């Protein structure tokens, strides 16, 4: 269930809901008050149930038609702050990018 980005309504009074066309965006509703939020760079919002969801790595999310993402904020080694990327030293290895600070739950 996606609600329109910038919507002033919440599907239920409390919960997290996928927003509009952007896969790394969601609306958090508390007591019917919607607040638009973005996942940390490189993580995508995954709607687990009608009212719950979380930001997670791309392989664990289903965005379907919500293909748009926030601009990348990566480094020389990682295109985005979070993600799984091929390791340049060994083709079969994978590097994991993580931001230096933890994302609050």
From TrEMBL:
One of its GO terms (cellular component) is chitin-based extracellular matrix. It comes from the Eukaryota. One of its GO terms (biological process) is chitin-based cuticle development. PROSITE patterns: CHIT_BIND_II. GO terms for molecular function: chitin binding; structural constituent of chitin-based larval cuticle; structural constituent of pupal chitin-based cuticle. Residues 7-65 form the Chitin-binding type-2 domain. This is GM17999. It comes from Drosophila sechellia.
């Amino acid at each position: 269930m996606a609600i329109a980005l910038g919507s002033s309504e919440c599907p239920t009074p409390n919960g997290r809901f996928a927003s509009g066309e952007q896969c790394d965006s969601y609306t958090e509703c508390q007591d019917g008050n919607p607040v638009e939020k973005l996942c940390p760079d490189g993580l995508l919002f995954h709607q687990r149930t009608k009212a719950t969801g979380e930001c997670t790595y791309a392989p664990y999310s289903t965005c379907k038609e919500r293909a748009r993402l926030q601009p990348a904020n990566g480094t020389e080694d990682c295109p985005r702050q979070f993600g799984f990327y091929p390791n340049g030293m060994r083709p079969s290895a994978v590097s994991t990018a993580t931001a230096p600070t933890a994302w609050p739950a």
